Amino acid sequence: MSPNRMHRAAARLAVPLLAAAALAATPARAAYPERPITMIVPFAAGGPTDVVARIVAEHMSRTLGQQVVIENVAGAGGTTGILRASQAAPDGYTIMMGHMGTHGAAPAVYPDLKYDPRTDFAPIGLAAGTPIVVVARKDFPAKDFKEFVAKVKADSEKLNEAHAGVGSVSFTTCSLFNSLLGAKPTRVVYRGTGPALNDLVAGQVDYMCDQIVNLVPQIQAGTIKAYAVALPERSPALPDVPTTKEGGLPEFQVTAWNAVFAPKGTPPAVVKRLSQALLASLDDAATRKRLLDLGGDLSNTAARTPEGLQKLVESEVARWNKVLKATGAAK
């Protein structure tokens, strides 16, 4: 072989060898997640959204191989925390546990809302539905739901109703409840269900409407009185508590929900990884039992996917806009 031909052959051989060497020298991109993930809960610790978030996050941490850390950011019916989360870097390291209030009712309650639940998030999936229970201080003078309704109708201006902030689930659902009764109680606002429930237990307020998840332990302990579950059938978690239909108010039937979202622009691969981790938690027998024992509803499997959750959000925004305008609670 001539020297020129030998040089050309050596050059051709060197090109792939150099490329392979360069590839080997380039560090591989680490798989997501590389570090802990923050899940913003837009209410104080101890509330129903916080409880659901902590149960789900515990199993997601094991699946993802990184800790999912809860950060409570309360205020403005949950919209303060959700706004902060929506403005985070869309890299999968900040996610949020939204709910019916922040991603359904908020646009009707806050006309200057700085985010749109339908367009400013990457949906991950539904965590749990949470039926609503009408509860009161343990010494409220009504033996059953029918007497309670009559008392609220007759003396509402003398009563105090607690809620977790304008736009929260407790606010929106009790807005509907009060409207159906023509009641006008003093509405006492708190920075989350936890503080509101503490004052209900202490007898500082008279009643509230809220998610079953955080109420079951207090109801079972007898520190508050449960009058009715806003469902067509009784909840397995509170089999002795009648439904609003049984109590003569079938119009008041409502189930709240909690779901995981990421900021808009989060890469599809990251959304998929988070969705898979959420689904794994909801398929885990121990996690399901914890949610079901607290009264959680896991029947809406369609909304567990990002696409299904997007449809749920769009329908809830339309629904609560109509309901709250009709009740006068919308601004």
UniProtKB/TrEMBL annotation:
Alphabetical list of InterPro entries matching this protein: BUG, Bug_dom1
Alphabetical keyword list: Signal
Highest taxon in the source lineage: Bacteria
Gene3D superfamilies (UniProt xref): Bordetella uptake gene, domain 1, Periplasmic binding protein-like II
Signal peptide boundaries: 1-30
Similarity-based family: Belongs to the UPF0065 (bug) family.
PANTHER family: BLR1237 PROTEIN, TRICARBOXYLATE-BINDING PROTEIN
Protein name from the UniProt record: Tripartite tricarboxylate transporter substrate binding protein BugD
